[in-house]
Amino acid sequence: MLGAMSSPPRAQTVNNHDMSILFRNVAFFTDAGAGWTGIPLTRWSSPIVGFMAGGREYRQHVRILFAEFSKLTGLPFRLTDNPRQANLRINFLSRSEIRKRNNAPNVNCAGRYSGKKGTITRAEVFISIDSSSKAHHCLVEEIIQILGLPGDINMFEKSIFHDKSTQTSLTIIDKIMLRTLYDPRLKNGMKLAEAMPIAGKVILQIMKNISKRQK
Fold it and tell me: Which of the chain's ends, N or C, has fewer CB atoms near its CB within 10 Å?
């Protein structure tokens, strides 16, 4: 699967050390805070079945994202028209309605997941339809976060994890983060201290593969 990741022209500006710092922050720490030790490593283990509540015009973008997420995680992704079959609900609403439903007066979009022992079993995202470009951005940001990368850190402007990001697709940095999270050498529920040495090796391998393709 590592060979499926394309190498971008600016990949040389990214190094292993920075990628490890980024992974530590987006995988183990959230906006709500998780103390010094962080949350356990959290991700899905089962196929992801999405239901879109509204947003028909964004269906093709969701399909494209699902195909990409599937390649990066190794998990099946698909859409359903039956909400009872879904474990991921994608709500398309006005910004005011999203803020009301989440009791969060300052958010534009939102997402949340549930599960236990480091395994996500259900999730829901809220996508603002007030702006088409913002909706496309929120789809990327909120779905990648409910896949187990809930944190933000302003290290790279060309990353969905940057607060000021307007990306509407995954960058190489985002792909490295997701590929690392779902590497089989990492296990659901791992604590930060146990997971990071392994994650560092995974990132190093990914970066080496990218470097080889640039030569």
Answer: C
